[in-house]
Amino acid sequence: MSGITRQVVIRGRVQGVGYRAWVEHQARRLGLHGWVRNRRDGSVEAVFDGVEDVVVNMIASCRKGPVSARVDDVTEEAADTDALGLRHSGEAFSVLPTI
Asked: Each residue of 5-49: pLDDT tens digit?
């Protein structure tokens, strides 16, 4: 199976409800590489890199999120592996500061 990299933006009630921590936990459990961060506009942004089926399933899970979240929209686009360079040194998956 080949690997893919996708960048997603999740909108709705996704800040202040543990969404980033949930994404981090799910991504690490699935063996994905990438990062997640809050954005000042109230959305959450993430990059997922890994086996195609796993990335696709992770994005599908993001459409539901944790119980306390309300996801209104998820946009997805292909990303370059250069986006992975934002991760913290030595981490496969990072939680980044808000932009």
From this structure: 999 999 999 999 999 999 999 999 999 999 999 999 999 999 999
Q: Examine the residue annotation and report whether 38 is marked as an active-site residue of this protein.
A: yes
Examine the residue annotation and report whether 57 is marked as an active-site residue of this protein.
no
Q: Which amino acid is at 81?
A: T
Whether 86 and 27 have beta carbons less than 8 Å apart is answered as no
Tell me which of 6, 20, 37, 87 is the catalytic residue: 20
* Number of DSSP helices (H) and strands (E) in the chain, helices first: 2, 5
The active-site residue, picked from 6, 13, 29, 38, is 38
Give the domains, in start order, of the chain with CATH numbers.
3-69 (3.30.70.100)
Q: Quote the tokens at residue 60.
A: 């599908």
